[in-house]
Specification:
Blueprint (H helix, E strand, L loop, with lengths): L1 E4 L8 E4 L10 E9 L2 H7 L16 E8 L11 E4 L2 E3 L5 H4 L10 E2 L11 E4 L4 E3 L6 H4 L5 H11 L5 E5 L3 H13 L2 E6 L4 H9 L4 E4 L8 E6 L6 H8 E9 L20 E4 L5 H14 L5 E5 L3 H9 L6 E5 L1
Helix pairs in contact: 4-5, 4-8
This protein binds zinc ion (ZN) (2 copies).
């Protein structure tokens, strides 16, 4: 199989041939059709997450077909088209798992982080952590559902009943959430990098009630806000934009430091919280909602071998579409 692997933090990925792995007991091998590129992959390749080991193959938004099964796996799974997301394994026994919070599992594994992921032609996976996908949907177009969609959904759930919802950082997750919110009857206020008029136009075409720079105030107070941009300075800005009792949810895995801010921004029972990882229930719920809402993703396919280019383009904000690697 072909993988794009990284030898150490900060190094470019290199194309490597490895033997096709035989799935160990309880696991399956996927033949990957497409794997989307996420901001978290940038944090992985930059070595910003703790405990990274090398060589490592990034990628946690893979669509593929189960083509081999290890001992103990139901052979009926062979041939099934599935998605592998960020959560690769949870122990099922720690206090978090037992409380229904497998996203916080003490012994979790993550695709493309603690395990080799989807920047490859093939990968191994635990079948119970794979998601069924709608048949017929093009692999590249639904690959972004598997992180941008799932984490977006968990973040949206954390905002409760917020009707007027700010989204800071209008990348893949924001674009998917805008469509889900329109379907649910919520109003989206999209905040982009200063002066990014194409992104603001795109937000309006996806149904946003308002779109502007992240340095601007929204035209009315928001009930809640979600931050996908990894910029800590946006936290006080978002708190200032939400009404009393409102919430600000940080949806990213990594963020620059949050500057100090006056207590009055939090006063009035505003809450500030983060969302971490996902549960399988989040995934199933989101996929059902995305199918019902008719969520479409604008994607730009890259050959697997051009993973470095895709990462660079995402980092530089050069593409509005979601980069997707196709083996
Ligand atoms: Zn656990
Ligand atoms: Zn991701």
């Amino acid at each position: 199989m072909k993988v794009m692997e990284q030898a150490r933090a900060g190094a470019p990925l290199t194309l490597t041939q490895r033997p096709d792995p035989s799935p160990p007991p309880g696991q399956v091998r996927l033949r990957i059709e497409a794997c989307a590129v996420c901001r978290t992959d940038l944090h992985v390749v930059d070595g910003e997450l703790p405990g990274l080991r090398y060589p490592r193959v990034p990628g946690h938004e893979a669509v593929g077909v189960i083509e081999a099964a290890g001992d103990g796996v139901d052979p009926a799974l062979l041939g099934r088209r599935v998605g592998a997301a960020w959560l690769a394994h949870a122990c099922g026994r720690c206090e978090f798992c037992l409380a229904g919070q497998e996203n916080l599992c003490d012994h979790a594994d993550f695709n493309g982080y603690t395990r080799d992921g989807g920047f490859a032609s093939h990968m191994l996976a635990d079948p119970e952590f794979l998601f069924d996908l709608p048949p017929g949907a093009p692999a590249a177009e639904i690959a972004p559902w598997l992180c941008a969609g799932l984490i977006g959904w968990r973040s949206l759930r954390a905002t409760g009943q917020a009707r007027r919802l700010g989204i800071y950082g209008f990348g893949s997750a924001g674009q998917i959430l805008a469509q889900v919110c329109r379907w649910q009857g919520r109003s989206v206020y999209a905040f982009t990098r200063a002066g990014d008029l194409p992104a603001q136009r795109h937000a309006r075409t996806l149904g946003a009630a308002w779109a502007g720079d992240s340095t601007q105030d929204p035209p009315e107070p928001l009930d809640g806000a979600i931050l996908f941009a990894p910029a800590g300075e946006l936290v006080p800005r978002a708190l200032a934009a939400v009404r009393k009792g409102g919430c600000v949810i940080c949806g990213g895995i990594h963020m620059s430091d949050i500057p100090s801010f006056p207590y009055r921004l939090l006063w009035g029972e505003r809450t500030l919280a983060s969302v971490a990882n996902l549960t399988r229930a989040d995934g199933r719920e989101f996929i059902e909602a995305a199918v019902a809402a008719g969520v479409r993703c604008k994607v730009r396919p890259y050959p697997l071998e051009q993973a470095n280019q895709a990462l660079d383009d995402l980092r530089a904000g050069r593409i509005q579409a979601t980069a997707v690697l196709v083996p």
